[in-house]
Design brief:
homodimer; Rossmann fold; 7-stranded mixed β-sheet; 5-stranded parallel β-sheet
Chain lengths: 438, 438
Amino acid sequence: MEKFFEPKSIAVIGASRHKEKVGYAIFKNLLSSRKKVYPINPNAKKICGRIAYNSVLKIKEDIDLAIIVIPAKFVPEVLKECGEKDIKNVIIISAGFSESGNEKLEKKLVDIALKYNIRYIGPNCLGTINPHQKLNATFFGKNPKKGKIAFISQSGALGVAVLDRAIEKGMGLSLFASIGNATNIGFSEMIKYLDKDKNTKAICLYVESLRKGKKFLNVVSKIKKPVIVLKGGMTKKGQEAAATHTAALMSENGVYTGAFKQCGAIKTESIYELFEIGSYLSKNKPIKGNRGIIVTNAGGAGVLSADAFEKNGLELAKIPKSIIKKLDKELPMEWSRSNPIDIVGDATPERYKKTLDIIKKGNFYDFIFIALTPQKMTNPKKVAKILVEFQKKSKTPIFSCFMGGELIKDGKILLTNENILNFEEPTYGIGMISKMVK
Amino acid sequence: MEKFFEPKSIAVIGASRHKEKVGYAIFKNLLSSRKKVYPINPNAKKICGRIAYNSVLKIKEDIDLAIIVIPAKFVPEVLKECGEKDIKNVIIISAGFSESGNEKLEKKLVDIALKYNIRYIGPNCLGTINPHQKLNATFFGKNPKKGKIAFISQSGALGVAVLDRAIEKGMGLSLFASIGNATNIGFSEMIKYLDKDKNTKAICLYVESLRKGKKFLNVVSKIKKPVIVLKGGMTKKGQEAAATHTAALMSENGVYTGAFKQCGAIKTESIYELFEIGSYLSKNKPIKGNRGIIVTNAGGAGVLSADAFEKNGLELAKIPKSIIKKLDKELPMEWSRSNPIDIVGDATPERYKKTLDIIKKGNFYDFIFIALTPQKMTNPKKVAKILVEFQKKSKTPIFSCFMGGELIKDGKILLTNENILNFEEPTYGIGMISKMVK
């Protein structure tokens, strides 16, 4: 598997001189990788200044990885040549196989790979990126920065959207792979590899179908890194769409939901959730229990947060009497005297600090959720500073929900820079937190 | 009711010279309204250059609206004075009534109002804003721009967050009112007024409890403007929190859900949803049916969209054979031949246009959902232009989901400027669309 992500020499079968072609985009991306890259194209003498070969068989040096980007019908023949050249790792970008009804053509690939002991990614995929090796083996023209999240996508086009968003948000990736129809290398092989990859701390998957469900279950059960899944085709209509897309096999939703639960994978409901949770778990341990404490200066935000706790199976931690007594001394008469701890609309940053200092002494909760709206005495940036300092000293996970616009902007930026996960509003955020509980 | 929102003369009981006080903030906001504003404060001679009065009874001119912002225990006395001065409209900002366990004190207000025929908003509220009159009768220091959405909130602090966000996003409001404990003027009175208000096209509510449920039902059933509700305290834990916040009465969730459905109010799940739907319905009619058509260049996005359709009770419109034939002529062989219409990863803007032009001819769907990821041939900005042109000619609602980062940015801006609702990802967006179907 290493040769997919750390190859020393690469052949691009279908490399092109024409800028509008996929074969040009991939070759160009690879040229900036400082690897040995060989263009294969019988109709060109040179491509981007490199001598082009008729076939991989014409190259004298060893090739670690071949990337195939030619029309589907020619793929079996060149895959065979890869076998003859003793290339064991191949990425097949080309589309036009089972997803377009050409099952027979796809079967040929499976057989050739078996015969020559080739492992391939694809067909019908976008390729792979390893930011830690500056290796971009896709036709996507930009590079995400180095990070700790691996993303394996069955859909290339969703992969592109995610890469583009990751780059905009400054989110780093450890590895990216689009595995397309996945008739040889599937999720299980990828996850096994990622478990050993020292750069990867969390594994995000976009799955349309698992051809080998039991194998997936076994692999995910055994690994210690968090696996976060977005499953497309969870409904009948979605499955029908998936069948035309990556030739995914039909199966019961219940089977997937049950299987994910059983093996400890975290099932998410949207692309956004997949990456927020992946990002959090790449830097933090899962939350150790479901007892949360809400601190807020806004009664309404406390109510919505409490609603979201109950809807998502989280528990409002019961505040011990001794802690209530201490809070009574520091907080104004109108405070809520229960969880959510409503420290009232005129709460200063100092009042947030005092409250946190008091509850810090008790061992009655697993995480803290701060809901804030920008009122007269609030000073969101100072509150953000207090939360950051608290997080540095305490091992308890702390999440925030600063609600508003301009007035909370500086506070939000500070929180994000200091790795406190801030949500725009409580309902959605608390749903996400519930999925990060161990 | 008009005098709450279009008063000619206003007395601020508790106006203050001290900048950190709420009584200063309100008085200052009102001074810039170009209304006659009188400060009432027995301990000051002048406030911001205006002669201060001992009591409203000392003012010779008629007063349309009094705003009370003094400690709770003094409120009944000054409310009485308002009655004697024949002031019929009062906003009671002061907190410390039933929400803090002082039911008796609150009962006094109810009785005095009854005796003098006073209508009051509050107590325990933030006040009101009428951008069309440049009237800011709250202690919030900024002004939202004129718009078509009215927002009535039982929570002042959530109100602040929403105002701040509205200002940042450039979202206009027709009216804002925080009604707090709502022991006199409640949602029903507000909605009745808003139904007649020519500036208001959609009514958004944050509700913690309805003291007069049947009245609410009756009023909402009769009005034609869309009413969109976020209900806090839908769970047991949420209700307990609401009880300490606005002294909301406990009630069954089912009762609320059923009631909202019966009277045609749209129930939302988050602040974000409340305003996205409110904003859409303030400018557009509800969608006339639940049959949607998905057009996408990304198979995975099509799968997730189809999943969201089914989860939210939307129907994937069946494409008539005649339309399929026409599409066959224009689209590449690999297109999905069903709904979602997957026009394949290399789709150009022109291909989007051709697809829309063909389906435009059929009457088999109620809305269009465009899911796009930024691939090699995509050109998101040109696709956005095509959608804008399509929307201008067609009466069919069109929604979009441009997924990605930098590459889709220009397209997204164009869509937003031209009033096409664009979602960041399909799951959440389609949930929202389902609530806008008539």
